Amino acid sequence: MIELKNITKVYHLGEIDLPVLKGISLKIEDGEFVSLTGASGSGKSTLMNILGCLDHPSGGEYWIDGKNVAGLNANERARLRNDRIGFVFQNFNLLPRTSALENVMMPASYHHPALPTADIRKRALELIRLVGLEERMHHTPAQLSGGQQQRVAIARSLINNPGILLADEPTGNLDSTTSVEVMNMFRDLNRKQGITVIIVTHDPKTAAFTDRAINMCDGLILEGVSDELSATLKK
Amino acid sequence: MKLWPLLCTCARALVRNPMRALLTVLGIVIGIAAVVAIMEIGNGSSKQISQQLTTLGADVVNVFGASVNTAGVSSGRGGRASLYAADADAITEHCQETVIAASPVVRTNDQVIVGNQNWSPNTIVGGNEHYLTIEGWEVEHGMAFTREHVRDSARVCLIGSTIAKNLFEDKDPVGEEIRIKDVIFTVIGVLGSKGADMGGNDKDDCLILPWSSIRTRLKGSSASATISKAGAANSSVGVSATDTFSTSAVSFYPGSDLQPYDNAPHPLRTVTVDGLIVQVRDSSNTTPAMDAMTTVLRAQHGLEPGELDDFEMRDRAQFANMVSSTSQTMSTLLVSVAMISLVVGGVGIMNIMMVSVTERTKEIGLRMAVGARPCDIMWQFLLEAVLLCITGGILGIATGRAISEIVAAQTGLPVESSPSAMLLAVTVSAAIGIIFGWYPAYKGSKLDPIDALHHE
Question: Model-level pTM?
Fold first, then answer.
């Protein structure tokens, strides 16, 4: 379970303090499929960085499974990310000139305690099969289409059996057909494997796939949902 | 992160851009190749020098009679005829720990005649059967004289190549007869060429005979040496010395009751020689050998404690040290120049690693996002630099070996492959990788994952 209590984030730009998050309190239960929406500048990227333990909040408490992670240092956060959180990015972020299989295996090499390479490989093969790319596992990202690259990225995010999957605009670089495929994949992962999936997006159509939309505006979470989104959700 | 997967990651990163990796390590390759080639050629040269020094006699100690002072006029070194042929055998026998062999030396100066040709050799010198080995002579053609030749004062001689050329021209000198002072000697061998000595004298202009032949057939007693009182007195104490130092198997010195042959005069124990030459085992430190020899000679000469030595010794090590330290200085100089090129190569590595870190900022961000700690990133880039340098080192060793082989083939300079140079090369290149790879790796590890991820 993820719980944020009055999280704030202030950036110091020279002498000016720029508050980006102004007190976010949020609870996401295990196995939820939620989206985080909002216009650009609303602070959703900052919130996602904090949710993903890439950044630490300026104030407030962040609890993951009953543990306050707001005060962890860089190394502890790295270990937590490796162990608990899977990342999927808008621009896929696969290692160039590296095969799909090796891309999937990469995060496991930072696992602590170290895992035997044979086990990592076996797990990576399962995941490649899960995302339907066993035919192309030796292809490099340049030889894969955008949708295929994103599927490799999803397989990569699952290599360490994370409880939470954090996707930052996962459909931002994909066409509508592929977007649907990718979103269905997230829904399957959520339904069948019980992984908590958080999708950060500004696109209402993408948000519509999720069970709950958290709408941000100006550093705060809006109570309820926007009219536009609720309309989409009802369909 | 375990070392092996990390190594694979690094190797893959390098293989991704092979041309750049190759150009990056070029500096290291050149530097290491220079170090290896210089060390190999230097090793070969110093081995050659030390071989040449041996032929010049770096491991030889000369023993002279002490000087004689007659009415205030000193004779100078070797003035006193205090050394005996038996001293050489005693030294060979009793100083085995430190001495390889000893030989008496007798010199004379005469004209050599063959048919209607004549020639005055630079040196006519006599020694025993060890003489040739001690002075580093090789018999090119024919044979050396033996212990029996020496015992019998045989009329045999070995000639240097200059004499062979001047007296015999194209004829084979072996078996021919030559005349010295109306005594006919048979040439039994021609010596290999040694060239000029340090003073510019032709060493090949020489004639080598058994010392006993010179002493008994050509020269009754040493022309310059005076048999001093002390020397004469030794004829009696010399016998007592034999009790301490038993002589060798072949008896050179028959008792006085034996009638000597007219045409084969036997050397007497008391026959003096002009000097001794002694080959020592350790040419770099002749002191233990000289101490042992002093003990033996004092006992041979029956000197009481407190009496002054009636002989002097001098080694040629000083000269050898000078030559070898010169060659050492040269190769140290060359290796330090080569080391500078290694440092330049290291700067090249640092340069490219900096570019690589900047270029792969996004990769660093991704790795950090999926759980790489700053130290993992640090290790990755550091290891990459070290791997690059070690690859360069290995390529450099191969290039260096090739260069020295080519040099050896083209110029005939001796080359000796040196495992220590290779070990040094690999160690140095790994060290360069660590030193020059550290800063870029450190910079990479200090990146913020969010900034790095969104780096364009």
Answer: 0.67
